[in-house]
Design brief:
Chain C: Its main location: cytoplasm. Chain C: One of its GO terms (cellular component) is nucleolus. Chain C: It is found in: Cytoplasm; Nucleus. The complex is a heterotrimer of chains A (about 270), B (about 350) and C (about 290). In chain A, about 35% of the residues lie in helices and about 25% in strands. Chain A is built from 6 helices and 9 strands. About 5% of the residues of chain A have low confidence. Chain B has a single domain, classed as GHMP Kinase, N-terminal domain (Ribosomal Protein S5, domain 2). Chain B is elongated and about 85 Å long. Chain C contains 4 helices and 9 strands; from the N terminus they run H-E-E-E-E-H-E-H-E-E-E-E-H. Chain C has one domain: GHMP Kinase, N-terminal domain (Ribosomal Protein S5, domain 2). Chain C is α+β, with helices and mostly antiparallel strands and about 290 residues long. The chains are: A alpha+beta (about 270), B alpha+beta (about 350), C alpha+beta (about 290). Chains B and C meet through helix 3, strand 9 and helix 9 of B and helix 2, strand 8, strand 9 and helix 4 of C. Strand 9 of chain B pairs antiparallel with strand 9 of chain C, so a sheet runs across the interface.
């Protein structure tokens, strides 16, 4: 079913009733799993992902890849290994994606590179940080959701990092073919919009304007790109606020419950 | 794989654990009773995009999610345009399912999809599900079409203990919460369904007098003790490990009342499989008598018969068990699972208490 | 997932032609019934040392039920090892067992691919559990052994329809053969075992008649019975009176536990009979 973009110009409302600069509901939890070093659950609209971080730990014996095992041992920084599992029931039509699916591999390497750049991997030589992501439900902005969930889980695991790596998507109100130079940029695309409209995924380091990941897989006029990017970076700042809130709330609750001791120098921390 | 993953216990620790578990009553490392399960957190219908879903979190942190999705598929092998009106009765008789209508996949992080142990887990779970032949029958729409059910079982956490009971219980809950759209078409015409999800009937109708999906329990024996829901460490010293699948028999109110049977559900045994106990690949201990570090063995090493020592068990020194299990032990394990008002009953009661939706 | 590296057969299913012949008509409608005693197994032929290049090997053939179009079971097993593990693999205090069971593409009515499918992997896991109990594994630290079984001909009648759903019962028969032949090959390779282990199958069957009661037979042929209610496959060590692998499938109410234990007993019986053949064959080789 093609997306009806004509309605947008009338009411300036998108198919799901949002304005151009509105994010979908983001709901996140950290420490969802008792046994893992770090874990998180993130919903961006109907996109639902879970993340479990194990490590930093000693690399286990590698099966099969004998050469890689020897190379890994000599590394001065921790290796970030990401695995993405897309559940068969995650999309509307059941589709089983193999583990060596090319799109999956690309997602994995993008996330691994983004995390490796912002985690202080040099503090953990000869070790591995295993990030496993599970996609339970997909409705657009998959890469962005995965990056955000991975960041939260790394925070939970207590791995030192420069700042949150936060991501979101941005798009444009009309298709490439329409050639409409004055099209408005859109924030946080859902699945329907992602199929029809040009879009990009951008991840930044915290509130700074430093872009960590930029993926644009669709065709779009250069003139529109800048606007989209600006909206995307702005969205990342909003996402960071939300994620930060989640982490702080959880920390506060843990102090109140007595799970962890209040850190030093935090005597004046506000605990309501 | 999962049962044989390396447990970082020394031979001395293994010997200690084995001894503690062989006492009467056994002393488990976490202080549980032999038939006691670990606490768990369960929820169902967590994913609106599926026909049914469930999530279970064990207290040790292992977590699994199961999603069920159904698709309409054309039944192969029906080439009849013979429009003979057989009436409703005949139609009911024709209702038969095929095992291919259910596809079950298990996904365990860190293991390849085609790993033998993953295949073993999937085979075990689907075997129990299809054992009575009644399950596939539920997927029949009409003579030309049927539902194809996809069960995707995902272990979210790294496999800390043998995941079989967790996956089985999660699958049970997911199937209980599974609903298929209400059929509006009649007879053998192309099926169309009611849009109203609230009207969709459950695959396993809610109520008392219905059968429920089977559950698979892991049970092990150490010495004379039978232990349920073993942890990874306990499995490392098991003499025998069985996976037993049980289903609930359709409760026929009249027959149970008439005979005045013991309270509890009547269960059906659906499948039993031996799970290769990881204890067989644990490192053995070295008795002091043959340990060269203690000096005595300097002479023993020269003796050509030093090998014969391995045959004798030394008290307190761990040796990986050899051979299998006595038939009587195996029978006792199965008997214990099926006991009326026993563990299987308790687990089914607990799962009953999980609210749907 | 198309297998592009090999020349494969036709994609669609091919059904051997069934000609409209009077004899065939009779055969198709009349199910052959079991002529053996309920507690007798089929004759089998076992020979060890058939593959000179392997360190141990064995060949097992189980006779057909004496009827055209029903094939028996033909298995060949090779054992490679014990040999040292690859240099980079971690230390193991025991011998590492790896089992591969593969149906030949033409072994069953439904053509099998070249890659192992889940059911074959499942058989491999069962076999591994059965053999691991028999092998004295700590005599070979840091070593591995590969056990490879090819099922050259599966135990399937030609005229039974594929949609009968008796696949598992065939699998149980195949597994019991695999266990017996692998045990012979292990002995041929000179790997120390606590005892020879053999497989046996017992089943609870029901005839086609209305008033036929269920009875227990050993070594069942699925095509000979109207309905198999339950079956179990057992790997048994006779000298120690121990079971190393048990696989039961069926539908058994809890008040029928007597039948279950009877089934297991009969499975052990079948295994004992197979073991006798196994021991005799090994004895011949020694002479």
């Amino acid at each position: 079913m093609p997306l009806d973009t004509s309605a947008y110009s009338l009411a300036l409302l998108r198919v799901d009733g949002r304005r151009w600069n509105e994010l979908r509901r983001i709901h996140a939890q950290i420490r969802t799993q008792a046994a893992a070093d770090g874990s998180s659950y993130l919903e961006m609209g109907h996109t639902k992902v879970m993340c479990v971080v194990t490590g930093p730990s000693e690399p286990g014996p590698r099966r099969g890849t004998a050469g890689a095992g020897a190379a890994g041992a000599s590394k001065a920084v921790a290796e970030v290994a990401v695995s993405v599992v897309v559940a068969g029931f995650s999309s509307v039509d059941r589709k089983k994606r193999g583990r060596n699916d090319k799109r999956n591999l690309e997602l994995q390497s993008t996330i691994a590179n983004a995390l490796a750049a912002s985690l202080h991997t040099h503090l953990f030589p000869h070790s591995v940080i295993q990030v496993s992501l599970h996609v339970l439900s997909q409705d657009g902005s998959l890469l962005a959701a995965l990056i955000n969930a991975a960041t939260l889980a790394c925070v939970d695991a207590g791995i030192p990092m420069t700042d949150y790596v936060v991501a979101c998507t941005a798009g444009s109100t009309s298709t490439y073919a329409a050639g409409d130079e004055s099209a408005d940029p859109l924030l946080d695309l859902n699945h329907q919009e992602e199929q029809e409209l040009p879009g990009l995924t951008v991840a930044t380091l915290g509130e700074s304007d430093r872009v960590a990941v930029l993926v644009c897989e669709s065709r779009v006029q250069v003139g529109r790109l800048e606007g989209m990017l600006a909206v995307g970076v702005d969205g990342c700042k909003q996402v960071r606020e939300i994620l930060d809130r989640v982490v702080r709330d959880k920390g506060k609750r843990m102090v109140l419950e007595g799970t962890v001791a209040k850190g030093e120098g935090l005597e004046d921390m506000d605990l309501d | 794989m999962a049962p044989n993953q390396h447990v970082l216990l020394s031979p001395a620790e293994l010997a200690y654990l084995h001894e503690a578990l062989s006492l009467t009553p056994p002393i488990r490392p976490d202080g549980r009773a032999p038939t006691q399960f670990r606490p768990l957190v369960a929820e169902t219908e967590i994913l609106p995009g599926t026909n049914g879903s469930a999530r279970i979190c064990f207290a040790d942190g292992t977590e699994a999610i199961v999603g069920v999705k159904a698709e309409v598929e054309r039944t192969r092998g029906y080439h009849g345009d013979d429009e003979e009106e057989g009436g409703e009765e005949k139609r009911e008789q024709e209702r038969e399912g095929q095992d291919e209508w259910v596809e079950l996949t298990v996904e365990i992080p860190g293991y390849r999809e085609d790993d033998a142990s993953t295949a073993f887990l999937a085979a075990m779970l689907s075997e129990a599900l299809l054992a009575d032949g009644g399950f596939a029958k539920k997927l029949w729409i009409n003579r030309r079409f049927h539902w194809k059910l996809f069960l995707d079982i995902i272990l979210i956490s790294p496999p800390l203990s043998y995941p079989l009971p967790l996956l089985s219980l999660t699958t049970h809950l997911a199937l209980l919460s599974t609903r298929l759209p209400r059929l509006k078409s009649e007879g053998d015409e192309d099926p169309f369904f009611d849009d109203d999800w609230a009207a969709a009937p459950y695959l396993y109708p809610q109520g008392t007098a219905t059968t429920r999906p089977p559950i698979t329990l892991l049970v092990m024996a150490v010495g004379r003790n039978i232990i349920f829901d073993p942890t990874k460490e306990e499995l490392a010293v098991a003499d025998v490990v069985l996976a037993v699948s049980v289903g609930e028999a359709a409760t026929d109110a009249s027959s149970t009342k008439g005979k005045g049977k013991a309270p509890g559900r009547s269960l059906r045994l659906l499948s039993v499989r031996t799970v290769d106990p990881p204890s067989r690949v644990t490192p053995p201990g070295v008795p002091n008598a043959t340990n060269s570090a203690y000096g005595i063995a300097a002479s023993a090493q020269k003796q050509p018969e030093a090998r014969t020592v391995e045959a004798q068990a030394v008290e307190g020194v761990w040796r990986a068990p050899r051979g299998g299990a006595k038939p009587a032990v195996m029978a006792a394990l199965v008997q214990k699972v099926l006991e009326r008002g026993g563990v299987a009953d308790e687990v089914l009661d607990a799962l009953d208490a999980v609210e749907l939706g | 997932m198309a297998d592009r590296r090999r020349v494969n057969g036709p994609v669609g299913a091919t059904i051997p032609p069934v000609f409209e012949d009077e004899d065939v008509q009779v055969q198709a409608t009349q199910r052959t019934t079991r002529s053996r005693a309920p507690n007798g197994i089929r004759k089998m032929y076992l020979k060890t040392g058939v593959t000179p290049s392997a360190s141990g090997s064995a060949y097992l053939e189980i006779e057909t039920s004496g009827k055209d179009g029903v094939s028996g079971l033909k298995l060949s097993c090779t054992v490679h090892g014990p040999r040292s593990l690859p240099r980079l693999s971690p230390f193991s205090p025991h011998i590492i067992l790896s089992t591969h069971v593969k149906f030949a593409p033409f072994a069953t009515k439904q053509r099998r691919g070249y890659l192992r499918d889940p059911s074959e992997r499942d058989l491999g896991t069962h076999l591994e559990a059965a053999l691991r109990g028999a092998i004295i594994a700590d005599r070979w630290p840091k070593s591995g052994v590969d056990i490879i079984i090819s099922i050259i001909e599966g135990d399937q009648g030609r005229e039974t329809s594929g949609a009968q759903g008796d696949d598992t019962w065939d699998m149980m028969n195949a597994l019991s053969g695999c266990i017996t032949v692998a045990s012979a090959a292990l002995a041929d390779a000179g790997i120390d075992c606590v005892d020879t282990v053999a497989g046996g199958v017992a089943a609870l069957v029901r005839g086609s008649g209305e008033n036929d009661t269920a009875r227990i037979v050993i070594d069942p042929i699925p095509s000979e019975h109207e309905r198999i209610e339950a079956a179990c496959c057992i790997a048994y060590l006779p000298a120690r009176d121990e079971i190393t692998n048990l696989w039961f499938k069926g539908d058994m109410p809890d008040h029928d536990m007597g039948i279950y234990s009877e089934l297991v007993q009969q499975g052990i019986q079948a295994s004992k009979l197979a073991n006798r053949v196994l021991v005799e064959s090994l004895g011949e080789t020694v002479k």
